[in-house]
Amino acid sequence: MSVPASHVDEGLKLTADGEVVFYEIALKNVPDGANAVVRFRDGPMGSTTRWANKTWDHLACQMTGQSRSSEEEKNRPTLRLMNPVGIFNDAAFQGRFDGAVLQKFTVLRAHLERGLAISDNEIWFIGRVKDLISGQSIGFELRALSDVPEQIIPARMFIPPEFPFVTL
Fold first, then answer.
1. Is residue 157 part of a domain?
2. pLDDT tens digits for 74-117?
3. Furthest CA-CA distance within the chain
4. How far apart are CA 46 and CA 30, in angstroms?
5. For residue 6, is it within any domain?
6. Domain range holding 88?
7. What does the alpha-carbon distance between residue 75 and residue 66 come to, in Å, rounded to a whole number?
8. How many domains does the chain have?
9. Whole-structure pTM value
10. 14, 128, 144, 155 - which has most CB atoms within 10 Å?
């Protein structure tokens, strides 16, 4: 029995195609008439994806340091975006990313292909621009909703112990 070529191709990819992640940044202090929302997903530059009646540009991006804990630890993941020809430089220097709201939408590829607006949503604030390399990349330090001066407290989360029924 031979393995279908599509399965072999999928097995050799560096990232799986089962989920598609969309990002939306609502910028702060934007003058009237300017675009206040940046929508993107990881993918080849110059392409777009239509989902949830919105157009999402393709932009190389990577989110690292994301974890969940029932302890009081405050997680501060990092989002790094490609910054071709310095398109984000002006917004960064003018402080439009400071305190901006970042939403992450994780969508199953099957739902995307059928046009269903079903997703797993996560929300952070951009704490600060961590680094900016003009023409190459921009990195943001993300903060939880409860980790900013205004403190918008999310619903409580209970994560049971890893082995709740083990006794000696």
1. no
2. 678 999 999 988 899 999 999 999 989 999 999 988 889 899 99
3. 66
4. 25
5. no
6. 17-143
7. 7
8. 1
9. 0.75
10. 144
